[in-house]
Design a protein that fits this description.
The structure is a homotrimer. Chain A is an alpha/beta fold. The first copy, chain A, has a single domain, classed as Ribokinase (UDP-N-acetylmuramoyl-L-alanine:D-glutamate ligase, 3-Layer(aba) Sandwich), CATH 3.40.1190.20. Chain A contains eleven helices and eleven strands. In chain A, strands 2-1-3-4-5-8-9-10-11 form a nine-stranded mixed β-sheet, sandwiched between helices.
Chain lengths: ~270, ~270, ~270
C-alpha cells in the first residue's frame, strides 16, 4: 500500500458507482446523499424495518450513523446489518455521540457486538468511550481523551478485528496492526455540521470499491481532505465552504488526490 | 393548450400563492420547502396522523413522496389523501424507489388504488414498475426499462384515469390521450439529490393553480427546467448548481418561461 | 439594558460555547445545527425519550420546535423539558404552526402549561392564537391578527410570567413589563424556509449566555438581523442569501452588532 494505490480507489468508485445504503440521522442526511453522489457513488436512504434487508442487498456498502438515534432505528440497523453480513456488504459505523448518553454508547456497543462492522469511524472521544478508555463527549463533539488516540484506536481495532478510524486534525486509520495517519483536510471542516457524517458516507463508497478497508478508509479520508483543502481557498464562511466542499468533491480527480495526499504509515 | 398558455400558469401560482402540503422524505425536505417558496407558493410539512386531515384542508395541493417510507407514514398519507379527495385538493404522488423494494412498490400501488391521485410523477423505472412493465430501479434511480417509456406512461395514465409524468432528459406528461414531451432541463439536475422531489413540489404548486393537470404538470416541469438551464451557466459543481437552481426558480418570470419553454405535443 | 450591553452577549456566547439541545423539525434541522455553530455555540439534536433527559443535562439551553410534530416527539419534549426545569436550563419554545391545527395549538399550550418555558418565540398569528386573541395561521405562516401584536405579546408574557417574542419585520420581545422592538433584519429572511427556526436556535445560544432573557432574546434577534442585512447585500436569491446569512453569522463581531443594532425600548 502506498499513496498512489490509495488514490486509485477513487477511480474504482467512479467506475463501479456503488449504491451506498444509509440508515442515518435527519440532521445531515441531505449532505450525505449529495456527497455520495459527488464522489461518484449512488446514495439511498431507507430505514423501514420491512425494506432495509431488501435494499441493502442491492448495495455496495451500508452506512450506519446513530446521530439521531431511537429504538426503532436500532431495530432497522440490526436487520440491515445482519443481511449485509450475510451478503458480505461492508458496514461503516459512525457512533455519533457515543459517550454522551447511555443510549448512544450502548447502541454503538450492541452494533459492534452483534454485527460484523468493517469500519468504525468516530471522533477521539467516541472511539475512546467504545474502547473503554477515558473519553469525553459533549453532545456530538469530542471533549478530550486521556491517552494516545492512535494507540487506543489500534487496541480497539485489534480486539474487535475491525478497522477503526479516528477523525481529527490528523485522521488515524488502523486495523490493529497497520496504522495510517492522514494529514489532509482543513480546519474549516470542523466549523460546520456534517463533515464527519459525509466522511463516513465517502468511506462507505470507498469500502464498496476496495476490500482492503484500511486502504479504502485512509483513501476516503484523504480524498475528502484534499477536496476540503481546495474548498477552503474559495469560501467566506462555513456555508460557502460546504458548497465548495461538495463541488470540489465532485471535481476531484484521482490525479489530484495522488498529488495532494498526505499519509504517513506508522 | 400551447406553450404560451403553459407559461401563464406560473403567473397564476404567484398570484394565488397556494399552500402545498407535503408528506415527504427527510432527505430532500428542506429543498422541497425552499423550492416551493421560490416558485411562489407556500410549503407546509406535516405528517402526524392527528393533524394531516386538518392541514390538507387549508392546502391547494398535497404532495406524497415515499422517499423514506415507513408504515406510520403510509397511514398518514392515506388520511391526508382521503380528505384531499373529499375536498378536491389535487394529489401529486412521487413513488420514489418503487421497484427497488416491495414496501415501496406496494405502497405506491396502494395509494394509487385507494386514493384518487391527480398526478403520478416518477422516473422511467418507477413508472414502468407501477405499469406492470419491465422496469428496474436501483436504490432510487431508474436502471433501465424495456419498452417505450412514453407508451408505458400513456397506457398507465389511460388505465388509471390520471396524469402520469416520467422524468428524464426529456420529461413525458400524459393523461392517456395527450402526450407532451418537455425538453427543458440540464444534465446537472441529475448530479444532485432532490431535483426529482423538487419537481414534484413545483408540480403540486402548479396543480393548485390550474385544473388541467396535463398542462399544469408540463408547465411545472418546463419552468423548473428553464430555471435549471439558467443555473447551469453559473455553477462550479452540483452544490453551487443547487443554490443557483433555487435562486433562478425564484427569479424566473412567466416571460422567460414563455421564451425558453421547449414542449412537443404528440 | 442598552444597545451596547445587548451586543456584548454575543461575546459571552462565543466565550462559553454553550451546548444547545434541540428537539426540532426535520425540515430546517440542518440550518439550525449550522447557525448554532456559526453563532459560536454547539448544537446537538436528540429526540429519543431514553436519552433526552441525559442530553439536556449537558446543555446550556433547550430549543423545542414543533414544526413537524407528532405524539412521540411531544413525550420527548416533556421529558427533556422537565429535566431542563430541574436543572435551570432555559427552554425556548417555537410553536411552529400553532393555530393551523389543533395538535399544534394544543401541544404548544401543553408545553407552556406543564413546563416552565423561558422564551416563547413565534410569528404574530401563532402568538395571538396562544394568547387567545384572534390570530390566523395558514400552514406555518401568520395570516393576520386583529389587535396590536405588541400588546397581545405583552399580555401573554405577563399572564405566563415568561418572555414572549414575536418575529416579523419588526421583532417584539417582552416580559410583560418591558417591551423591546428590534428593527434589524431584511425582507429576504422571509423568502426562505428556516429563518424563524434559526432565530430560535440563536435565541437558545444567547439564553445560555445571559440570565436576562428579554435582553438575551432581543440581542439574539438583533444579531441575526444584522447578519441578515449584511447577507442581503451579496445574494442573488433566497438560496444564495441563506449561504451568505450563515457565513455572515459566523463572521459577525460584537462590534458590528453594537454599530448595527436597532432597538427601541417601549
Amino acid at each position: 500500500m502506498d499513496a498512489r494505490s490509495l488514490s486509485g480507489i477513487l477511480t474504482d468508485v467512479r467506475a463501479k458507482r456503488p449504491l451506498v445504503h444509509h440508515i442515518t440521522n435527519y440532521v445531515t442526511v441531505n449532505d450525505c446523499a449529495n456527497v455520495t453522489l459527488c464522489i461518484g457513488a449512488a446514495p439511498v436512504m431507507a430505514h423501514a424495518h420491512d425494506e432495509v434487508a431488501e435494499m441493502v442487498a442491492m448495495a455496495g456498502a451500508l452506512v450506519l450513523n446513530i446521530g439521531t438515534l431511537d429504538h426503532k432505528q436500532v431495530d432497522s440497523m440490526m436487520a440491515a446489518g445482519h443481511r449485509a453480513n450475510d451478503l458480505d456488504v461492508p458496514i461503516i459505523l459512525d457512533p455519533v455521540g457515543a459517550g454522551a448518553t447511555r443510549l448512544r454508547t450502548e447502541t454503538a456497543k450492541l452494533l459492534l457486538h452483534k454485527l460484523h462492522i468493517s469500519v468504525l469511524k468516530g471522533n477521539a472521544g467516541e472511539i475512546a468511550t467504545l474502547a473503554g478508555a477515558e473519553g469525553k463527549v459533549r453532545g456530538v463533539d469530542s471533549a478530550g481523551v486521556s491517552g494516545d488516540p492512535a494507540e487506543i484506536a489500534r487496541g480497539l481495532a485489534e480486539k474487535l478485528g475491525i478497522v477503526v478510524a479516528v477523525s481529527g486534525a490528523t485522521d488515524i486509520v488502523t486495523d490493529g496492526k497497520r496504522v495510517i495517519f492522514v494529514d489532509n483536510g482543513h480546519e474549516m471542516m470542523g466549523k460546520l455540521s456534517g463533515t464527519g457524517c459525509m466522511a463516513s458516507s465517502i468511506s462507505g463508497a470507498f469500502a464498496a470499491a476496495s476490500k482492503d478497508h484500511v486502504a479504502s478508509t485512509a483513501a476516503a479520508l484523504a480524498a475528502f481532505g484534499v477536496a476540503g483543502e481546495k474548498a477552503a481557498k474559495r469560501c467566506e464562511g462555513p456555508a460557502s465552504f460546504k458548497i465548495a466542499l461538495l463541488d470540489e468533491t465532485y471535481r476531484l480527480t484521482a490525479d489530484e488526490v495522488s498529488r495532494g495526499i498526505k499519509v504517513r504509515f506508522a
